[in-house]
Each structure stands twice: as C-alpha cells, then as structure tokens.
C-alpha cells in the first residue's frame, strides 16, 4: 500500500515539475537594462571597439560568434530568462521585431554606464538614459499592438526588469583618469554619492513607466578582475583593494536608495542581487581557474577583450571563471544567474531573490 502511495506521490511531483518546465513563464515579459554583462548584440552595429561579434566570443553559442555576447556562450540574462520559464532568449532592442516585444526586450550595451560620458573612450554605447528612451519607444509600440492603455499598463506592471549598471562608471570612467575628469573632481565617496543619486533617478523613471518587479545588481568585486590585477598588482587579498573599497561605497549607498524606493513609490518592489556575495561565498562548483582569462587577450583592439586574430581559447572553459579580462564564462554566468534567481546564502539578495519577486 505504502509503496503504491509513494508511487502516486512521485508521479504527481513529476507531473508538477513537467508542467513547470513546459508551461507559461512565471511572468509574461522580461526587460533587461545593463552593460556588457547582458548585451546580446545591441553594440554590433555601433561605431565602437567595445563589441564582441567575432571569434572566439560565441564559440559555444548555438548560432556562433556573430551574436555579440561578451562571453563564450550564453550570458546572465539568457539564463535568467530560462529560469523564469521562457523557451528562448529575450531579443536585443536593435533587432526585436513586431509582437516579439510583448515578452520583453534586451537593451544592454557594452561599456554603457549610469553616466552618459561613461565608456566614450571606446566609441558609441547606449547609456542608461538612452536605454530608458528606448524603453519609452517600446511602450509606444506595445500600446500600438494592444490598442488599450489599461492593458499595456497592466502588462508592464507584471514584467520582470533587471538592471546591471555601474561597473563601467568605475572601469571606464572614475578609474580611467587619463580620459575622464571625474576622479579629479570628486573624492571616491562623493563620486559614489552622485552616481547613486543619478541611478536612483533612473530607477524612479523606470517605475514611472510601469515597472514594479525590479532586480538591481550592485557592483561586484571589480578589483578582482584579471584586467585590474594585471594593471595594478595584487594586495594580500589577491585583488586590488582600493578598487573594491570604492565599489563598496557605491553598494552601501545603493542599499539605502533601494530602501527609499520601496518605501516611497507605490507598489514598488526593488531588490538587490548582491554580486559580492554571489561571487564569493558558497561551495566550490567545479571552477579551478579564478584569476586569469580563457582567451588570448588583445593588445590592439578594445582593452582587456579577446584578441580577434583567430587564436583558439582554452578548451576547459567550464573550469574558468573569466573568458576575457572582464567577462565571466558561460559556466560562471550560469552560476551567477542561478544564485540571483534562488539565493544560496542570505546575503545573495536583498530583501528577496528573483524567484521571490516573480512568484509572488
Ligand atoms: C515558446 O513559447 C511561446 C508562448 O509562450 C509559443 O508561442 C512558442 O511557440 C514557443 N516556442 C517554442 C519553440 O516552443
Ligand atoms: C482594456 O484592457 C482592460 C484590462 O485588460 C480590459 O478590462 C478592458 O476591457 C479593455 N478595454 C477595451 C476597450 O478593450
Ligand atoms: C595594496 O597595494 C598597493 C600597491 O602595492 C599599496 O600601495 C597598498 O598600500 C596596498 N594596500 C593594502 C591594504 O595592503
Ligand atoms: C552583500 O554581500 C556582502 C558580502 O557577503 C555583505 O557584506 C553585504 O552586506 C551584502 N549586501 C547586501 C545589500 O545584502
Ligand atoms: C600581448 O602582449 C603581451 C605582453 O607584451 C604578450 O605576452 C602577448 O602574447 C600579446 N598578445 C597577443 C595576442 O599578441
């Protein structure tokens, strides 16, 4: 008897698992704002050296290297889309067509920042302010499909939004004092304050466009990137301490800002995906190379990216955290997305994780 009952329970749980995999996504739409961590081709046709539509980028991607992701395979946004139940990736804004936009758009752009001038050294890029303008345009297009402002608004309220911004305001602005004035104008603390103020204004705009479920990534340990340890040398921590200290100022202020938004904006649910916690704590999961890149780094094109002269990258890509001097491998992107979706440690997300955001 008991074994028969167990059998039925097992069948029911298999049925539930199956319907979760095959069923509708947990939210009807997913909009992605950010930099090269999520860019899936928006920079391909911009005049910039910050693009990744050449070999060995995309070596493990189904359609090969022309997709424009800054990694060997899928990026963080691709894995988050999969975890919330979408059966394919969210299309880039540059090429999204017709009804595709009803399930979301990816606005991500390599070297983009919170500040408009961030990344200009490398050429064109779609800053957070421009990504918000693009989103306004998407909303008009959605409304012309649905022909009902109430329905458009209701759809936008239900979507998931993720924002990965701020990395380049340090890497390709404050820390690049030969090209940007910011480090001469502001102390690290002052810069973090104005950056968070600008970011908070942008997140308020996103809320005013109907966003309610918003997962914001804070800035990770930039001082541990291979490009930074190569440039500045390592402290006892193995990383460049002063850079991690600058970023921590931003992260502390961002948390206060997120609390403000949740308190003051109607029905707002902003969360922080804590990149520091996600990249450090927790059990080992198969990586063996943490501090050097898988591909051969270019000496001529964009700083810290893979060389474009056809050299083969490392073959054991699942063991590397970094594909080039800045960007995680597909294996690392999968790990980061998985812990952003379901927190492993209590510090991984605040006040809840993406799963908590989309399922309630
Ligand atoms: C993906 O899902 C959408 C609706 O959720 C459906 O219309 C489409 O046919 C699916 N595509 C595949 C390849 O299963
Ligand atoms: C517009 O959409 C709302 C919400 O989906 C619905 O209740 C309403 O009937 C729609 N109005 C028209 C004119 O279709
Ligand atoms: C880190 O290294 C730099 C350069 O070697 C040095 O100036 C600095 O004092 C070190 N910081 C710490 C906290 O050890
Ligand atoms: C993020 O994680 C770090 C390291 O685990 C922790 O010190 C910090 O308090 C966390 N921040 C938030 C907002 O949870
Ligand atoms: C770039 O320069 C470094 C040091 O000068 C050298 O070791 C490396 O092989 C060069 N990379 C390429 C792709 O030429």
TrEMBL record:
Similarity section: Belongs to the 'GDSL' lipolytic enzyme family.
Q: Which GO terms describe its cellular component?
A: extracellular region
Tell me the GO molecular function terms. Answer: hydrolase activity, acting on ester bonds
Per the UniProt record, the source organism is Solanum pinnatisectum (tansyleaf nightshade)
User: Is Transmembrane one of the keywords?
Assistant: no
Keyword list (alphabetical) reads: Hydrolase, Lipid degradation, Lipid metabolism, Secreted, Signal
Q: Name one GO biological process term.
A: lipid catabolic process
Query: Can you say what this protein is called?
Result: Zinc finger protein
Q: Give the residue range of the signal peptide.
A: 1-23
What InterPro entries has UniProt attached to this entry? GDSL, GDSL_esterase/lipase, SGNH_hydro_sf, SGNH_plant_lipase-like
Looking up SUPFAM superfamilies in the UniProt record yields: SGNH hydrolase (SSF52266)
């Amino acid at each position: 008897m008991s074994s028969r009952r167990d059998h039925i329970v097992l069948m029911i749980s298999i049925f539930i698992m199956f319907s979760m995999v095959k069923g509708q996504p947990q939210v009807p739409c997913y909009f992605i704002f950010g930099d090269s961590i999520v860019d899936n081709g928006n920079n391909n046709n911009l005049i910039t050296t910050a693009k990744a539509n050449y070999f060995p980028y995309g070596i493990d991607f189904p359609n090969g290297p022309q997709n424009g992701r800054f990694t060997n395979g899928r990026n963080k946004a691709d894995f988050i889309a999969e975890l919330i139940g979408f059966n394919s990736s969210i299309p880039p804004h540059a090429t999204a067509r017709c009804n595709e936009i009803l399930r979301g758009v990816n606005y991500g752009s390599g070297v983009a920042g919170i500040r408009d001038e961030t990344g200009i050294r490398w050429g064109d890029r779609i800053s957070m302010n421009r990504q918000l303008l693009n989103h306004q345009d998407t909303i008009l297009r959605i409304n012309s499909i649905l022909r009902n402002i109430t329905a458009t608004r209701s759809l936008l309220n239900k979507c998931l939004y993720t924002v990965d911004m701020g990395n380049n305001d340090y890497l390709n602005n404050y820390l690049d004092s030969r090209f940007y004035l910011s480090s001469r104008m502001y102390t690290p603390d002052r810069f973090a304050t104005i950056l968070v103020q600008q970011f908070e204004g942008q997140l308020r705009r996103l809320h005013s466009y109907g966003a309610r479920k918003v997962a914001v990534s804070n800035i990770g340990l930039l001082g541990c990137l291979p490009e930074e340890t190569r440039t500045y040398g390592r402290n006892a921590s193995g990383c460049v301490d002063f850079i991690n200290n600058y970023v921590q100022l931003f992260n502390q202020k961002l948390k206060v800002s997120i609390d403000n938004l949740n308190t003051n904006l109607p029905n707002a649910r902003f969360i922080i995906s804590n990149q520091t916690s996600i990249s450090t704590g927790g059990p080992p999961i198969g990586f063996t190379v943490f501090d050097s890149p898988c591909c051969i780094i270019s000496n001529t094109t964009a700083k810290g990216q893979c060389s474009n002269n056809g050299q083969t990258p490392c073959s054991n890509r699942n063991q590397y955290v970094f594909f080039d001097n800045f960007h995680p491998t597909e294996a690392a992107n999968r790990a980061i997305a998985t812990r952003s979706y379901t927190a492993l440690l209590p510090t991984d997300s605040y006040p809840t994780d993406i799963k908590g955001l989309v399922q309630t």
